[in-house]
Structure formats: C-alpha cells, structure tokens
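Quick one, T. Sequence first:
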Amino acid sequence: MANIKFLNETDGAEFRMTHPKAERVLKDIDQWAQANDFEHVAFWRDPEDEHKLWVQLGDDRLNYWIHDSTFTEGKHETVEMQMDYARGAARRSAAGYGKFDK
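Structure tokens:
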C-alpha cells in the first residue's frame, strides 16, 4: 500500500481528504502508485488557489497539479490518466526539461 498524503503548502500541515466520493479515487491512486513503484504520493494544496493540489511522486515535487474536484466529485475514471501525466512531468523534470515547462 502506498503512502498517500495531503498537505498544506503554507505550513506543511497534513490534512485528510474526507469527502465520501474520494475513497474510490484514493484506491485507484494507491493501485496506480503500486503498479508504478511509488511508495509515496503527496498532494500539496496551493496557498493561492485551494482547489489546486500539486503532485509529488516519491521525493519529486512536480510542476503538475490536479483539481480537488477529482476527489470531491469522485472522478476515479480520470485519475489514472492524470497520474500518468504527472509521471510524465516527473520524467521531463529528471531529463532536464522541467525548466522549459514553467
């Protein structure tokens, strides 16, 4: 089972995604993380827009965010695709292209 966390960008405090529809999405993220060898996945709440959750895969914080409605509206059918995009952002960053993504 992957360690999935939600954190506030402003103070680093962890919060829980307790919306009833989020459970299925979190289960899909856990399965995705395990299949892609990520033990840790974090979502950081943007201080200027609380609906943006910036993705962190493992130790890498990415220039990629997921809207909180993915969780609050239970959009489990799209979350795998979004996590694949995040993994692509991680690969671009590791290859040195991250500086061009801003």
